């Protein structure tokens, strides 16, 4: 196979009309250029250059090969340009996943601050429940995850980024809205609730808190896949729910939902950043984690 420099030389001879000018354009001596072209001719088994006392010019075969060489060089340039683009993207890329509460209320602020300092940063965010975020992180499909488990997940490095707590909410027309005494863990466990799906941090926090209080929850009234669906169901009068205080702040202000005090059960939880165990965070993931911790 002819080397790329020899193909560039052949193309320049075609474009400039002489070996001397082509050699000068490449910064090599004319005898070296002639020797390189002779090597290409031997490898291809063709006469590419017509050498006469008046000078040198490409033969018809030489012009044909020069045309093909030009296309090869264009493809090589495209390959190198594309590879550089991929390198740039990988240098700038930040893949994150966040549970729904974090993705809605906290992560946008952290990401926005990071982007203000690095406007060229390419960032992809997946919004999943906490179990799914953990799996994506363990499998290396994201660089950094944010979860709301009530306990540290296994197989991952973690760092606390915020705290949160669940509140019990009902519609304004629900009988608990007029209740004078706090609910007990038994009251909560014995009442069918509107809950998030299994694997969500909110559901895991509620279940763990009830277990710690020594009670077992009855079957849920409804099992829904997002905080907004839970809020809307409660506001419509479906039944009570235990949901993140972050998720209901606005609805409490407009009186669509009412909080009900609870005693004898700990509904606090830690919001965590997670990444593959044993991996040191550098670059954009480390910068995002630092911002999240700094906001805490």
TrEMBL record:
The keyword Cell cycle is annotated on this UniProt entry: no
Ranges for domain HTH lysR-type: 2-59
Transmembrane segments: none
Superkingdom field: Bacteria
SUPFAM superfamilies in the cross-refs: Periplasmic binding protein-like II, Winged helix' DNA-binding domain
A Pfam entry, by short name: LysR_substrate
Entry keywords, A to Z: DNA-binding, Transcription, Transcription regulation
PANTHER family cross-referenced by the UniProt entry: HTH-TYPE TRANSCRIPTIONAL REGULATOR, HTH-TYPE TRANSCRIPTIONAL REGULATOR CYSL
Family: Belongs to the LysR transcriptional regulatory family.
Name of this chain's protein: LysR family transcriptional regulator
Species, as recorded: Amycolatopsis minnesotensis
Organismal lineage: Bacteria, Bacillati, Actinomycetota, Actinomycetes, Pseudonocardiales
